[in-house]
Design brief:
The complex is a heterodimer of chains A (720) and B (163). Chain A contains 17 helices and 18 strands. The longest helix of chain A is centred in the middle third of the chain and has 78 residues. In chain B, helix 1 packs across helix 6 and helix 3 runs parallel beside helix 4. Chain B is elongated, with a radius of gyration of 18 Å. The termini of chain B are close together. The chains are: A alpha+beta (720), B alpha/beta (163). At the A-B interface, helix 11, helix 12, helix 14, helix 15 and helix 16 of A face helix 1 and helix 2 of B.
């Protein structure tokens, strides 16, 4: 997978420059720095060494010359002075002279040899290096340098008449010490030179070798770590700098290429992966499809195998009556056992029949129209069918189009719903009865209320009627007829009637009294009639209220609280008047309309007013006050309050009064407030009681949701 | 025969009190003079039977009625008869009131009035015991019936007293 990270440069020249082989062997493998220092030291060493050698050499030559010169002069002086003694053969004086010469520095031995070569006198300083006993070649003169010493031969006598030969042997101590001194000097100079060279070499090293080493390090890092982000440092604008730059350029290029390569590679990888995943999923999907196809094919094959038998079974042995009809004629092509059993026609007879023939209550055309429908499957609805026995049954038919015997036909599923329909009718009947019964029960309840309200008034009516009747029966008006009869009877002699002693005398008085009496009767009757009319109007009110009260409730209506309050007050007015209770209505007009079932609200308010009446009845007459009012203080509900100045409610009973069956009345049921609170809840309102205790009166508050006016809706709709 | 015509009416409805007054305490408007003149003018006249004037007292609650009855008894001027309503909230109901009254005045004749049957006869007798001093009057009542009851029962009360 790994592509070549480092690009190769095949066209790069690989020629090696020619090197000195020895130098290459000596310095070749060393690092540049050491190479540089060594070459510096080497060069410096050669130069210094050459200089030192030359110096020492000239020094040695100088010293040697000085020594020989000194020996020669010593020898010449000695030869002159010894000329006489030698001639005399005075060896002792010659020896003394020789001894004197030995005192001089640099002369280690001296001897005088006769021409036959025998030594006239021999003297040396330390006998370590004595002069030879005999001279081999007496004719010799001049310098004869040896290894340890220098011999100088000087003839004694005149030219041609040599009488003796003088040997002066000088040691090389001076020369040696001179050389020693020069060598030491040379060594010191050499060491100093080396140190200086090394120091310089180090400096150069920093300047020359270090950039190269750094370059080399960078190059090494780049090549070993494959990190082309590394950059060489360019120190000077020289060849090394150029190399560093080039390296950097190369690195940059490589990096660029590598990044590109990397990108291309990751793109490729991603594409590859995606392609791979797609391939995989498509293979999976295809595999799944294939599996399903195979499964389906298997199922279809299996189904095909037994479908015919199964459908035949399904049809023939189906517990539901089924038949197959010819599409056009609607004749029965096939009928199952259930149909035969249900309809009672034997199989053969059935096959001769058609659907319209057994249908009752619908003409053939209707049946045809319905069942020739093109719909593949449809619910044909309920039909009345005639059985063999003549019984008419309700059949619910469902038809499906099928291929039967190579032809399009209709298979019909018939369901006998006669019983169900009967049951439904019975249920409806029962429901109706129930409704009637409950209505009657409701009526009975209403009637009880009416009876209670009307009963007392009716009593007054009855009394008034009786009084009127009695008044009319006992009227004195009959007196007029009697007067007329009297006058008629005395028509012949009217003056006699009015004569002294006649009955007529009292007639004027009687008539005037009668008139008074009749007038009084009239007044009395009118008063009684007014009372009667009032009472009858009252009954009418009560009945009218009861009727509206008894109206079917359950509908939410928008009403102003005032209307509800007034109605409730009217309904209880007679009782309130009867008990001497003053009812005050306080309902500002700005209280909003409320949403409620007016029937329920009236029920609640009448209940509350009745309770209030009972509560104040025990109080003195001037204290029997009930206030019913409405108020609204924001929010979604308005309140209707019924306040009384009556006996009040002990704190522990404030909530208990709403309990079912709780009552403080000896003959109460304990349903009233319970039902009222429930009704308030049903209307999304509430009913609460407040009292500061016995004797302080009580306030009942019925809260009802206010109606929310909605745009484009007339009239205002109920929020609840 | 001196008959005690004092009657106590106990009912929470004022209209009923009025009805009783009209039936039992209506003063005859007839002026005696007119009848005399008729005698003189026409010889025979049919004078209506003189209605007895009953003395009526009203109470609007059972307890008030009981107190009145007790007070009257203490003053030596007892009631002969009481008409008592059954429903008189919030205080004692009719049956309770009767029971209390009979505790202090057992001989008092009582007519119990009811608009509809709050109590059946069985329930009443269960509470009060079988008694020959109790009658039930259904509202709305016939004035004549009330008059008859008033006459007969006051007379009935007076008999054992005078006997």
């Amino acid at each position: 997978m790994a592509a070549e990270a480092v690009p190769s440069f095949p066209d790069a020249p690989k020629t090696k420059p020619a090197f000195d082989k020895r130098a290459a062997a000596l310095l070749g493998p060393l690092p540049v720095g050491r190479k540089l220092s060594r070459s510096t030291l080497f060069t410096a060493g050669i130069a210094l060494l050459t200089a030192a050698l030359l110096f020492v050499l000239s020094d040695v030559i100088g010293a040697f010359r000085d020594t020989t010169k000194a020996l020669a002069s010593t020898a010449r002086v000695l030869a002159q002075s010894a000329h006489a003694p030698v001639l005399a053969g005075d060896s002792a004086s010659v020896a003394a002279m020789l001894d004197a010469q030995l005192l001089a520095e640099g002369v280690s031995a001296a001897a005088v040899y006769l021409p036959d070569g025998t030594a006239l006198a021999r003297r040396d300083k330390s006998s370590a290096n004595p002069p030879p006993e005999k001279l081999a070649a007496p004719a010799r003169s001049g310098l004869s340098p040896g290894i340890r010493h220098i011999d100088f031969y000087q003839p004694i006598g005149t030219e041609g008449g040599r009488i003796a030969t003088l040997l002066v042997r000088g040691n090389l101590g001076l020369v040696t010490s001179g050389i020693k001194g020069s060598l030491i000097t040379c060594a010191v100079v050499l060491v100093a030179g080396f140190i200086a060279a090394a120091r310089f070499a180090r400096r150069f090293h920093a300047v020359v070798a270090e950039p190269i080493a750094a370059l080399a390090r960078t190059a090494t890092e780049v090549s070993t770590e494959r990190d082309f982000q590394k950059r060489a440092v360019k120190c000077f604008d020289d060849e090394i700098g150029t190399v560093a730059e080039t390296l950097n350029d190369v690195c940059e290029e490589v990096e660029k290429r590598e990044a590109e390569l990397q990108r291309t590679r990751s793109e490729l990888e991603a594409r590859l992966e995606k392609a791979h995943a797609e391939l995989e999923s498509s293979v999976l999907a295809r595999t799944h499809e294939l599996e399903e196809e195979i499964e389906d094919r298997k199922k279809t094959e299996e189904a095909m195998k037994d479908s015919e038998t199964r459908y035949r079974n399904l049809f023939e042995n189906n517990p539901m009556p089924m038949f197959v009809m010819h599409l056009e004629t609607l004749t029965f092509v096939a009928v199952n056992y259930a149909a035969v059993k249900h309809y009672g026609y034997p199989m053969e007879e059935f096959r001769r029949l058609a659907l319209p023939l057994i249908t009752d209550g619908a003409d053939a055309m209707t049946v045809m129209r319905t069942f020739r429908s093109n719909a593949k499957s449809f619910d044909a609805g309920e039909w009345k069918h005639r059985k063999k026995s003549g019984e008419i049954v309700d059949m619910q038919l469902t038809a499906h189009a099928i291929i039967f015997g190579g032809q399009v036909a209709k298979i019909v599923l018939a369901n006998d719903v006669t019983e169900r329909n009967r049951a439904q009718r019975e249920l409806e009947e029962l429901h109706k009865k129930l409704v009637t019964a409950s209505r009657q029960a409701g009526q009975a309840e209403v009637a009880t209320g009416v009876l209670h309200n009307v009963g007392n008034v009716l009593n007054s009516v009855n009394v008034s009627a009786t009084i009127l009747e009695n008044s009319v029966k006992g009227t004195k008006a009959t007196g007029i007829r009697k007067v007329a009869e009297l006058l008629n009877a005395n028509r012949a002699d009217l003056p006699a009637l009015f004569a002294d002693g006649g009955k007529g005398r009292v007639l004027p008085d009687y008539l005037s009294k009668l008139a008074d009496q009749i007038e009084a009767e009239q007044t009395e009757r009118l008063a009684e009639l007014a009372h009667l009319t009032g009472n009858i109007a009252h009954i009418k009110d009560v009945v009218a209220n009861q009727q509206s009260y008894a109206k079917a409730g359950g509908l939410t209506e928008v009403r102003h609280p005032r209307a509800l309050i007034d109605e409730a007050a009217r309904m209880t007015a007679s009782d309130m008047r009867g008990a001497g209770v003053t009812v005050t209505v306080e309902c500002p007009e700005d209280v909003p309309d409320v949403c409620s079932d007016p029937h329920k609200v009236l029920q609640i308010l009448v209940n509350l007013l009745t309770n209030a009446r009972h509560a104040v009845e025990t109080m003195p007459e001037e204290m029997r006050r009930v206030t019913i009012g409405a108020s609204y203080s924001g929010g979604t509900r308005a309140a209707i309050t019924v306040q009384d100045t009556g006996c009040g409610i002990p704190g522990e009973n404030l909530t208990r009064i709403f309990n079912h069956g709780f009552t403080t009345k000896s003959n109460g049921h304990g349903f009233g407030l319970h039902t009222a609170a429930n009704a308030a809840k049903e209307m999304h309102g509430s009913l609460t009681a407040a009292s500061e205790g016995p004797g302080t009166g009580a306030t009942f508050t019925l809260e009802l949701p206010i109606s929310v006016p909605e745009e484009n809706q007339e009239p205002a709709r109920c929020a609840a | 025969m001196n008959i005690n015509r004092r009657i106590l009416i106990i009912d929470d409805n004022r209209a009923i009190h009025e009805d009783f007054r009209k039936i039992l305490a209506s003063s005859s408007q007839d002026s005696a003079g007119l009848a005399d003149m008729e005698d003189e003018l026409f010889g025979e006249t049919t004078r209506p039977a003189q209605t007895e004037n009953f003395e009526l007292s009203s109470a609007f609650q059972g307890e008030d009625g009981f107190n009145l009855a007790k007070k009257a008894l203490a003053e030596g001027n007892p009631f002969a008869l009481a008409f008592v309503d059954v429903r008189m909230p919030p205080g004692w109901d009719g049956v309770e009131t009767i029971a209390r009254i009979w505790e202090v005045a057992p001989e008092m004749q009582i007519v119990i009035c009811t608009a509809y049957s709050d109590y059946s006869w069985e329930q009443i007798t269960e509470r009060l015991g079988k008694s020959d001093r109790l009658l039930i009057l259904r509202k709305p009542f016939d004035p004549v019936e009330v008059q008859q009851l008033a006459y007969n029962l006051t007379a009935k009360w007076s008999k054992p007293q005078t006997a």
